[in-house]
Amino acid sequence: MKVGNTPLIKLSDKLYGKYEALNPGGSIKDRPVKYILDDAEERGILQRGSGQVIAEATSGNTGISLAMMCAERGYKCVIVMPSDMSVERKKMMEFFGAELHEVGEGDFDAAILLKDEMVKKEGYFTLNQFTNPLNIECHSKTTFKELLNHSITIGKYISAFIAGTGTGGTIMGVQKGFQEFDSRVKMIAV
């Protein structure tokens, strides 16, 4: 499955957007999901086609990416999320075969707790997207490098990087890359 290498879209003379919706799952979350699964497979923790169960707490996009990649790789997917997340997200996860468990509206702490209990009790693999350093590493090794290549291609200096925050992996990984390359780039979390 091809993830990443998404295009840079010119929005104005000085503003560009990285079009992450072109990833197979429709979001930037495909990057860390693939990166973490690839790492677990390389280390022999997961074996494709084994039917092993992977569980994660998510509000949506990571769950869609995980459900899609589990379907592709032959894993079972268990998603725990607050009940007030969009019906469309839930349907996408179910479409890919994920088993959904819902907790109270807006109670993301309960979602993480339930996921952690399942992982401990059942021995499921988990991405641990909020605390896994591979989430940050993924973005420093892929997203940042693509941004750097784009800046060379378009012949323009990147003065700021703006990103929405969920786990914080994207902005922390890109920041790590720019700190090693050019510390003048401003990082703006939205």
The overall average pLDDT, rounded, is: 93
Q: What's the total count of β strands?
A: 8
Reported for the largest beta sheet, the result is: 4 strands, parallel
Q: How many individual helices?
A: 6
What is the H-and-E element order?
EEHEHEHEHEHEHE
Q: Could you say which structural class the secondary elements and strand pairing correspond to?
A: alpha/beta
Radius of gyration: 17 Å
How far apart are the termini? Answer: 29 Å
Q: Tell the overall outline.
A: globular
> Strand order of the main beta sheet, please?
5-4-3-6
Task: Describe what this molecule looks like in 3D.
- The protein has 190 residues and is an alpha/beta fold.
- It has 6 helices and 8 strands, in the order ββαβαβαβαβαβαβ.
- α2 links the parallel β3 and β4 (76-82).
SSE arrangement:
Layout: E1 8-10, E2 16-18, H1 30-42, E3 53-57, H2 61-73, E4 76-82, H3 87-95, E5 99-103, H4 108-122, E6 125-126, H5 133-154, E7 160-163, H6 169-181, E8 186-189
Parallel strand pairs: 3-4, 3-6, 4-5, 7-8
Antiparallel strand pairs: 1-2
Helix pairs in contact: 1-5, 2-3, 5-6
Q: Which features would summarize this protein structure in a list?
A:
alpha/beta; 190 residues; 17% strand; 4-stranded parallel β-sheet
Brief overview:
The protein is an alpha/beta fold. It contains six helices and eight strands; from the N terminus they run E-E-H-E-H-E-H-E-H-E-H-E-H-E. It has helices spanning 30-42, 61-73, 87-95, 108-122, 133-154, 169-181, and strands spanning 8-10, 16-18, 53-57, 76-82, 99-103, 125-126, 160-163, 186-189.
